[in-house]
Amino acid sequence: MKYSKEYTVKDEHIDVQGIMDGLYYPFYMEYCRHSFIDEILGFNLENEAKNGVNMVLSEYTINFLRSLKKDDVITVTCELHRDKNNIPKLHFKQAIILNNKVVTKAVFSGTCVPATGGRPFIPETLKTIIENAPVLE
């Protein structure tokens, strides 16, 4: 299932060249991903942290294809994928789109860990959802 949200590029995210600083592309993806995790997966990061479960990133790759400018209205997408080796990881394929063209694409991978320390795991509440997700190739 592909999820998306719309955002407007903020003036404070623009660098001296008049384009969005590369630092902020992952932030817009994070905003969308956190909404996806909460609204679609039913995993509220704040509540889960209070209950001793932290969802953390383990890695990401990002490709910048075009630049964004102040006031650009962008669509950020997020789609869940499961790990091809059945490692306890969640993979989120994401893109930033402007005028029907992909500006940036990325894959963010993460897992859950006990707040007290311990091995990565996928909570039972997410296992069924992940089983139905496509495999990340």
Automatic annotation (TrEMBL):
Keywords linked to the UniProt accession: Hydrolase
Keyword presence, Hydrolase: yes
SUPFAM superfamilies with a match to the protein in the record: Thioesterase/thiol ester dehydrase-isomerase
InterPro entries associated with the record: 4-hydroxybenzoyl-CoA_TE (IPR050563), HotDog_dom_sf (IPR029069)
A GO molecular-function annotation: fatty acyl-CoA hydrolase activity
Taxonomy, superkingdom: Bacteria
Similarity comment text for this entry: Belongs to the 4-hydroxybenzoyl-CoA thioesterase family.
Name by which UniProt lists this protein: Acyl-CoA thioester hydrolase
Top-level taxonomy: Bacteria, Pseudomonadati, Bacteroidota, Flavobacteriia, Flavobacteriales
